[in-house]
Design brief:
- The structure is a single chain.
- This protein is α/β, with parallel strands linked by helices and about 240 residues long.
- The chain has two domains: about 30 residues, no CATH class; about 170 residues, Rossmann fold, CATH 3.40.50.150.
- Helix 3 packs across helix 4 and helix 6 packs parallel to helix 7.
- The radius of gyration is 21 Å and the shape is globular.
- The N terminus is likely disordered.
């Protein structure tokens, strides 16, 4: 009777994807029907410790850790707070808000998003003039915090894409200014560039503190940053017509 072949032993025990236990970066064996950019993105996701942690924790995206780090520093998500989440898909930021005790959340995205009770999720274009009032209606009043992880679809031209991003942030800023409670806060994804400096300076007119933050969960090779504005001073009354 022949002997069974010897079993191969693992070099190290399973590690649940911890940073310390990661070996050489994994590479996909096949790239059939994938572009070079999508292949690179998939390999980055496979080897990304934050993506692995998000899957293990049940977060819908690694972006959850960006908000977690921002909130650990600035303490924005509080039980009883009213929060609006712009660009919610796939839902990681709203998950963090709920996890930290926020029960009043209204969110919007162009894409469909699976329910995240008790959040009210609206599938709509945020730039539609009807969207803002609808969010406030769903929230039941003005927010204490406006979050924006929105980013426009890119066209592949660096300067054009950057200007489109800045334009979207400016729309989010004007919305936050029009709806926030005094003392409220605004957080928005941005990308490094000259226009961001102008945007920070403009925000300082209406917020007590304005910071440009790069969470550890933002990839180091990315120009992505986050604007964190706290201590909203309140809306300036409109001047009466002459």
């Amino acid at each position: 009777m022949s002997e069974d072949p010897p079993r191969k032993r693992m070099v190290r025990p399973p590690s649940a994807g911890s940073d310390e236990a990661r070996g050489k970066p994994a590479r996909l064996k096949t790239a059939k029907q994938r572009t070079a950019s999508s292949q690179a993105w998939l390999e980055r996701q496979i080897n990304d410790p934050f993506a692995a942690r998000a899957r293990a924790h049940g977060y819908r995206s690694r972006a959850a850790y960006k908000l977690t780090e921002i909130d650990d520093r600035f303490r924005l998500l509080k039980p009883g707070a009213k929060v609006i989440d712009l660009g919610v898909a796939p839902g990681g930021w709203t998950q963090v808000a709920i996890e930290r005790g926020v029960k009043d959340i209204a969110a919007v995205d162009l894409l469909p998003v699976d329910p995240l009770p008790p959040a009210h999720i609206l599938q709509m274009d945020f730039t539609d003039p009807a969207c803002g009032p609808r969010l406030i209606e769903l929230l039941g009043g003005p927010p204490d915090l406006v979050l924006s992880d929105m980013a426009p679809n890119t066209v592949g031209h660096k300067q054009t894409d950057h200007l489109r991003i800045i334009g979207l942030i400016e729309i989010a800023v004007e919305f936050a200014r029009s709806v926030l409670k005094p003392g409220g806060a605004f957080v928005a994804k941005a990308f490094q560039g000259g226009e961001v400096g102008d945007l920070l300076a403009d925000l300082k007119k209406d917020f007590a503190q304005v910071r440009n933050v790069k969470p550890k969960a933002s990839r180091q090779d990315s120009s992505e940053t986050y604007i964190v504005a706290t201590g909203f001073k309140g809306r300036t009354p409109s001047a009466p017509p002459a």
